[in-house]
């Protein structure tokens, strides 16, 4: 929210303990794979393909 105008600029999905634990588990698994070896530029390029 823009504090000056109160305009909503975006939204964020809510998650509980179960979603957080799942995200952590997946991140730990993925860091054992090739993601760990990607450069920052390679990670950015990949993530931009998802939007």
Give a quick rundown of the structure.
With 51 residues, this protein is mostly helical. The chain has two helices and no strands. The radius of gyration is 16 Å and the shape is flat.
Would you spell out the secondary-structure blueprint of this structure?
Elements (H helix, E strand, L loop, with lengths): L16 H14 L9 H9 L3
Order of helices and strands: HH
Integer average pLDDT? 92
Number of strands: 0
- What is the CA–CA distance across the termini? 22 Å
Taking the sheet with the most strands, its summary is:
none
Q: Pairing-aware structural class of the strands and helices?
A: mainly alpha
What low-confidence regions span 5 or more consecutive residues with pLDDT below 50? Answer: none
Categorize the overall geometry. Answer: flat
Number of helices: 2
Work out the radius of gyration: 16 Å
* Helical proportion, percent range: 40-55%
Strand-residue proportion: under 5%
Features:
51 residues; mainly alpha; 2 helices
Description of the structure:
The two termini are 22 Å apart. The model has no long low-confidence stretch (mean pLDDT 92). It is flat and about 45 Å long. The protein is mainly α and 51 residues long. The protein has helices at 17-30, 40-48. The longest helix has 14 residues, at 17-30. 45% of the residues lie in helices and 0% in strands.
């Amino acid at each position: 929210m823009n504090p000056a105008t109160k305009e909503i600029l975006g939204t964020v999905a809510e998650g509980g303990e179960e979603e957080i634990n799942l995200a952590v588990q997946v991140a730990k698994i993925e860091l054992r794979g090739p993601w760990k070896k990607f450069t920052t530029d390679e990670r950015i390029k990949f993530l931009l393909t998802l939007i």
